[in-house]
Specification:
Shape: globular
Order of helices and strands: EHEHEHEHHEEEHHEEEHEEEE
Number of helices: 8
CATH architecture of the largest domain: Sandwich
Strand content: 25-35%
Helix content: 25-40%
Number of strands: 14
Radius of gyration: 18 Å
CATH topology of the largest domain: Tumour Suppressor Smad4
């Protein structure tokens, strides 16, 4: 007997290509997974509502047809309402960045991804919770499956989300990163992991990672595991623009942890406090607000199917 399934679709994901691709894919989804409801998001954060209301109505499996940002919204909708244990979650990789897909080894081939979901092999994965300051200056909270970050990455996501994505996720994020490097000034930030001060001073990037990749394929946290009950903090100090450009290939390859000045720590709680103009915060490729933030790991908060828990 098939599980009652809800597919959450972000029609503007991947520059609008997701709507066209999913409409063609829907008969195959129903053939493999059985009858399913489809929830089309109507705007930012709407996937939170769709997932929450669906599970409260008895949905047992939520399939995210989109990218990292849509997955983050679904995770927020479930965990903020205390529903993480009531439905399994799966990913059909149709979005821009595809970074969580890389860590979870979800196939890009959609038939293979559907077959993995249908097999129903469950993996308990961690999630993260971020307490931050929104654009109106109010305290707010959100949840994520992959990475929460701040600094130049926050500016990059702002630029990527304003620009067309016709060239695909990797190129979109590379162009956004280069534009952000040209414009960004390192912010003065204090970082603590489980209460211990690990950085104080100019900061280009801080990433609290559950997964390994962000920014359209950068292996920012090469040793992170999404099932170990810990966040990997990676912090890049106030490098100048030329130095940052020179180190960018190492960040893509995941070989930057031994670069002098780069901080890598593991812990359950990461706190970042600005000592001047607060930099932007993003989660899973979507802009949120600004520092200060408190980021905590939620061990085994999600049940995910169609994936593997890969780590470095």
């Amino acid at each position: 007997m098939s599980l009652r399934t809800l597919v959450v679709v972000n029609p503007v994901s991947a520059g609008g290509a997701t709507r066209r691709r999913f409409e063609k894919l829907l008969p195959r989804v129903q053939e493999v997974l059985g009858p399913c409801d489809v929830g089309w998001t109507q705007g930012p954060r709407d996937a939170e509502r769709i997932a929450r209301e669906g599970v409260r109505a008895g949905v047992e499996r939520v399939v995210v047809a989109g990218g990292d940002g849509t997955m983050s919204e679904v995770v927020t909708g479930l965990l903020a309402a205390g529903l993480g244990g009531y439905a399994e979650v799966a990913l059909l990789p149709l979005g821009t960045g595809g970074d969580l897909r890389r860590t979870l080894a979800v196939p890009l081939d959609l038939d293979a991804a559907l077959a993995g979901i249908a097999r129903g092999e469950r993996v308990a994965l961690d999630a993260g919770r971020v307490a931050y300051v929104d654009r109106a200056g109010r305290e707010a909270a959100a949840y994520f499956a992959n990475v929460a970050s701040f600094g130049i990455s926050g500016l990059t996501t702002e630029l990527v989300n304003r620009a067309p994505k016709a060239l695909g996720g990797r190129v979109s994020f590379l162009v956004g990163t280069l534009r952000a490097i040209a414009a960004y000034r390192a912010a003065d930030v204090s970082l603590r992991v489980d209460g211990e001060l690990v950085h104080e001073g100019p900061l280009v990037l801080g990433a609290a990672a559950n997964g390994r990749f962000f920014g359209g394929g950068m292996e920012v946290a090469p040793r992170a595991r999404p099932d170990d009950g810990l966040l990997d903090l990676v912090a890049v100090p106030g490098f100048g623009k030329l130095r940052l450009l020179a180190e960018l290939p190492r960040i893509y390859r995941g070989s930057h942890l031994d670069v002098a000045g780069v901080v890598w720590r593991r812990g359950a709680v990461v706190e970042a406090t600005p000592r001047g103009e607060p930099p932007f915060v993003e989660i899973d490729g979507e802009p949120l607000g600004r520092l200060p933030v408190r980021i905590e790991i939620l061990p085994k908060a999600l049940t995910v199917v169609g994936c593997e828990a890969r780590g470095g």
